């Protein structure tokens, strides 16, 4: 049966939280295990629904996968299967990241078009065009991405947009291609650097990780390795924004604060006292937050994954905030749910104008994706009465121990079965 959260507003969040490995990294690291025969071990894995879903995808490709708390062991056969079917990949977007490794190892890949969050168009054009430049033939057939290559060779590839997914797939195909590949306008996210570091440990030759130009010298073979996932900057920032919204005091550990420099600066503008520490940061907000403008951009810009939380902060801030969404066009559907909570908000194309009010009002709301769900819960923490958040399975896909952590910080939230009559 589906579940919902009951969130009672009014409490400050106070305490300390440790974040686990990054969702946006671990799934790609698991896919990279396809590149080497033998057992690859990934540690510091988050306890989220997408990890066992990716494990199922890999099992369908012939791998043995052992999930042991925060450790995932993936044993890849000498000849993996090349077809990732719809049943395995339909539930989450990151499943498409097996495309590059399968083309590299098997010279053929059939990957059903993935599902995932409803946040706007995320086409695979750049993935396919990059693979074509490496020598693969790629088409869409019967709901699947089909790619085949007699041989892979290095190429100069310039991405039209610094797409994280396209960078990852092209990178993982290029590491086993003959010759040199240069990816220009590559994504620069910390999760890309994490993937590069693991591939280098496996024997890949990669230069430029963390810059907009990646240079890959192909090698004949990679070896399995053990790698620790970096801390989840999006989860960490969610707790930091929650502290600011509730006028709380929260210390977040397990993440590199340099990965969140712009986000922490925005919280300072909102009036929070923010202290960067060796393995995290602390956010203390004494007074009502001040209005802040946000514009989402690829890293090192403000993350689109934090846009719903930024809107939640703006909704209770003093003054008027402008939120500009430059990455996913449909992400503003979250604003409709915030209006149900009393937010004074309007959208116009890529822009949302939020006039802050002193307190939101409780209402039933529905999650449309992982981050929208988290944003609605944060809004419920600063609303009067009890807010019902539905479709919370989205949140479970990206936030480990979400309810338990909020309770430990002093938030009033409980997980209950959803009322069938309330389902959309």
TrEMBL record:
The keyword Transferase applies. It is found in: Cytoplasm. Pfam families: EPSP_synthase. Phosphoenolpyruvate binds at residues 23-24. Pathway: Cell wall biogenesis; peptidoglycan biosynthesis. The active site is at 117 (proton donor). GO terms for cellular component: cytoplasm. GO terms for molecular function: UDP-N-acetylglucosamine 1-carboxyvinyltransferase activity. GO terms for biological process: cell division; cell wall organization; peptidoglycan biosynthetic process; regulation of cell shape; UDP-N-acetylgalactosamine biosynthetic process. It is an enzyme of class 2 (transferase). Keywords: Cell cycle, Cell division, Cell shape, Cell wall biogenesis/degradation, Cytoplasm, Peptidoglycan synthesis, Transferase. Residues 7-406 form the Enolpyruvate transferase domain. UDP-N-acetyl-alpha-D-glucosamine binds at residues 93, 305, 327. Its EC number is 2.5.1.7. SUPFAM superfamilies: EPT/RTPC-like. It catalyses: phosphoenolpyruvate + UDP-N-acetyl-alpha-D-glucosamine = UDP-N-acetyl-3-O-(1-carboxyvinyl)-alpha-D-glucosamine + phosphate. Cell wall formation. Adds enolpyruvyl to UDP-N-acetylglucosamine. NCBIfam families: murA, PRK09369.1. PANTHER family: UDP-N-ACETYLGLUCOSAMINE 1-CARBOXYVINYLTRANSFERASE. HAMAP family: MurA. Belongs to the EPSP synthase family. MurA subfamily. This is UDP-N-acetylglucosamine 1-carboxyvinyltransferase. It comes from Rhodococcus wratislaviensis NBRC 100605.
């Amino acid at each position: 049966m589906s579940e919902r959260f009951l969130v009672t507003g009014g409490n400050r969040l106070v305490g300390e939280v440790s974040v686990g490995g990054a969702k946006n990294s671990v799934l790609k690291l698991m896919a990279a295990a396809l590149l080497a025969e033998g057992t690859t071990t990934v540690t510091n894995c988050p306890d989220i629904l997408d990890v066992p879903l990716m494990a199922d995808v890999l099992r369908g490709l012939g791998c043995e996968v052992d999930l042991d708390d925060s450790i995932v062991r993936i044993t890849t056969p000498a000849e993996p299967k090349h077809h990732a079917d719809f049943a395995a990949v339909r539930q989450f977007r990151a499943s498409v990241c097996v495309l590059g490794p399968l083309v590299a190892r098997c010279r053929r890949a059939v990957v059903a078009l993935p599902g995932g969050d409803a946040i706007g168009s995320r086409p695979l054009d750049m993935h396919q065009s990059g693979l074509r430049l490496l020598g693969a033939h790629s088409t869409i057939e019967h709901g699947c991405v089909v790619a085949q290559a007699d041989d892979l060779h290095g190429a100069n590839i310039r991405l039209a947009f610094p797409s994280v997914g396209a960078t990852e797939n092209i990178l993982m195909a290029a590491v086993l291609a003959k010759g040199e590949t240069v990816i220009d306008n590559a994504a620069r996210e910390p999760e890309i650097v994490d993937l590069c570091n693991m591939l280098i440990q496996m024997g890949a030759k990669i230069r430029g990780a963390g810059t907009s130009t990646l240079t890959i010298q192909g090698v004949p073979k990679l070896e399995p390795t053990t790698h620790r996932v970096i801390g989840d900057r999006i989860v960490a920032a969610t707790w930091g924004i929650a502290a600011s919204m509730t006028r709380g005091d929260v210390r977040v550990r397990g993440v590199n604060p340099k990965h969140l420099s712009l986000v922490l600066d925005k919280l300072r503008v909102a009036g929070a006292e923010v202290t960067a520490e060796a393995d995290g940061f602390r956010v203390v907000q004494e007074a009502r937050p001040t209005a802040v403008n946000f514009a989402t951009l690829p890293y090192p810009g403000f993350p689109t994954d934090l846009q719903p939380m930024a809107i939640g902060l703006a909704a209770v801030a003093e003054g008027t905030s402008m939120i500009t969404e430059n990455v996913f066009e449909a992400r503003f559907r979250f604003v409709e749910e915030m209006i149900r909570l009393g937010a004074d908000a309007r959208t116009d194309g890529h822009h949302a104008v939020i006039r802050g009010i002193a307190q939101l009002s409780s209402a039933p709301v529905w999650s449309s994706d992982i981050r929208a769900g988290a944003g609605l819960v944060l809004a419920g923490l600063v609303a009067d009465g009890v807010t019902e958040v539905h479709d919370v399975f989205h949140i479970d896909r990206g936030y480990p121990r979400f309810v338990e952590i909020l309770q430990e910080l002093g938030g009033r939230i409980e997980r209950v079965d959803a009322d069938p009559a309330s389902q959309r």
